[in-house]
Design goal:
Blueprint lengths: L5 H6 L1 H12 L3 H4 L18 H5 L2 E3 L4 E8 L20 E8 L1 E10 H6 L6 H23 L12 H6 L5 E3 L11 H10 L9 E5 L1 H13 L6 E3 L5 E5 L2 E5 L8 E2 L4 E3 L5 E8 L3 E13 L7 E14 L5 E8 L1
Length: about 325
């Protein structure tokens, strides 16, 4: 096919040649069109940062968060006759510390990549934003399964801190393989948490699998959970007035020995964590910070992310775990 419009070639022979070439080249519709790319970068991950999202954050100072704890005496008082001396009884005091630990990461974008992607968007800013999400997931992991005994540079997480007090671990079963979740045991776990009567202070944390098991238990007993809005505007389901928050860092392969989780991998159970946010919070010496670094090489730009903080369990009775749930 050829184009014979006189205006095309008379004015500009080169334009006529280009026009004829476009009409004659097979598949021109695919090869000569500029590819248009949707500007949103799709992040391929599935994350629910429950603890990092809902736990209160308080500014920290010094090298650690120090908490004074008091254990009451055996009795609150004594009944005496009018001639008896008053017995003396005082509580016992102890100090707990939660050292601040540092999590860091570094990103790098080459100069050429930024130049070639200039028409698409700000590549450096996009990578900073995306890497912040990756970094937050690492913090969430530490808030759940962190163990300073396994890694001295790491904070202790909810599972580690809670299991340090034996009374705060409720067993769904003594079997290593776990057993089906029951609402009776979940109620017992909630009752173990100090201040559980004030439901607005409590949060139930579970993995996706743990949440599904809880939903199944509710449906089996024909109970229905409402919705409630929590921090950051999230609307979540509730159980007995307590928000159910999902964390993708709660393992479904916990190793259960009948009374406690002895390892965070290698097993076949999951746990549900109940937290009173009045007593359990994140103390931040340095909030999550993104810092562009000075250029030392014309070939690339670098940036660091860092966070200094600790998970504080101010009261040993402020959290409880329901363990041994077959996942």
């Amino acid at each position: 096919m050829t184009g014979n419009a006189q205006w095309l070639g008379a004015v500009d022979p080169a334009r006529r040649e280009a026009f004829e070439r476009a009409l004659n080249v097979a598949g021109a519709g695919n090869t000569l069109l500029q590819t248009l790319i949707q500007r949103t970068v799709q992040q391929i991950h599935l994350r629910e940062l429950g603890a990092f999202s809902v736990l209160p954050r308080r500014p920290g100072s010094g090298n650690a968060e120090y908490i004074n704890r008091r254990t009451p005496g055996a009795t609150g008082g004594s009944w005496v006759a009018d001639t008896d001396a008053v017995p003396e009884e005082t509580g016992a005091y102890a100090q707990a510390s939660f050292p601040f630990k540092t999590l860091v990461s570094r990103g790098k974008i080459t100069r050429k990549l930024q130049a070639t992607g200039r028409s698409y968007g700000d590549i450096l800013a996009g990578e900073m934003t995306a890497k912040t999400g990756d970094f937050s997931e690492k913090v969430e992991e530490a808030l759940i399964v962190g163990d300073s005994n396994a890694d001295a540079n790491q904070i202790d997480g909810l599972l580690t801190l809670t299991q340090a007090t034996a009374s705060q671990v409720v067993s769904q079963t003594t079997l290593a393989a776990g057993d089906a979740l029951t609402l009776e045991k979940l109620d017992e776990t909630i009752d173990r948490v100090k201040g559980s009567a004030a439901r607005s202070d409590l949060v139930i944390m579970a993995s996706y699998q743990g949440r599904r098991l809880l939903n199944a238990a509710l449906q089996a007993q024909q109970q229905f959970n409402d919705m409630v809005e929590i921090a950051a505007g999230f609307r979540v389901r509730t159980y007995d007035g307590i928000p159910i928050v999902t964390s993708t860092e709660i393992p479904d392969d916990l190793l259960w020995d009948g009374t406690t989780n002895t390892a965070f991998t290698g097993g076949a159970t999951t746990s549900i964590i109940v937290v009173n946010t009045r007593y359990t919070y994140i103390s931040e010496l340095t909030p999550l910070t993104v810092l562009p670094l000075a250029k030392t090489d014309s070939q690339f730009d670098q940036f660091d992310l860092y966070w200094d903080g600790a998970l504080v369990n101010a009261n040993e009775l402020g959290t409880a775990i329901l363990g041994g749930i077959a996942a």
